[in-house]
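Side project, low priority. Logging it here so it doesn't get lost.
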Amino acid sequence: MKLSFTTLGCPQWDLETIVSRAAEYGFDGVDFRGLQGQMNIYELSPFAADVEHTRRRFEDAGLAVTCFSSSITLVSKEREAQNIEELERYAELCARFGTRYIRAFGGRLNGADRSEALNTARSYMQRVEPILRQAGVKLIIETHDDWTRCEDVLDLLDGTSSDTVGVLWDVHHPYRMFGERPEKTWEALGSRIEYTHWKDSLPEANEPGKFKYRFMGEGDVPFGDIHSVLRTNGYDGWYTFEWEKRWHPDLEEPELAFPQYVRYMRALGAGK
């Protein structure tokens, strides 16, 4: 079981702390979603002028950069130019770090017609396919926003190549938001699932649709069933912890949440 975490969970850590703590806690890699408040990390010195030093630092620590989690939003016409630039910049970093994946969101509809949004997304993916092929990277669409149910993700995948577009299964969202069972998710999307995000939660009492994140195993997301589905079907990708400290500052500190995730997942993988 290959474990990583997104830097969303440690918004105060500098790069050196990220590398040292990842190795100390027993992670195998790091997924970059911002660094100390800056989301577009390609604008920062460690990923620009000092990128080779950064690459060597990860290599020396025995850590992979598992994914660059972008802000690309497929259904947003307003972000089209920005989406293209982000993809190009992250594709360059993928080449530097030997990273296969760039995460993208389907995005929120905000009242827009779903079919029109799909046309926008397909137009974007057609435009960027040559970029993805040339760079040898894959855009992975997260089960998130208005594209959380497996049926809706399938619509986004329609017409795309499995060589360039895959799925990031955030195992929390389909279950929590729609009660979607992991067997159903895998049956629909399994052939395109390349990567996973993990987090736990419990519904908020007397607040329908609201939930509170919890340490792994302290919520009710059926991780045993999810892991069984993945293992049975030969999944060998990353198990990435997405502790949303950046968006929810009241969450416990990463010094507590990160090692707890490793302990929980190692036990899960061992069948304990």
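Brief comment: The chain has one domain: 2-270.
Revisit when time allows.
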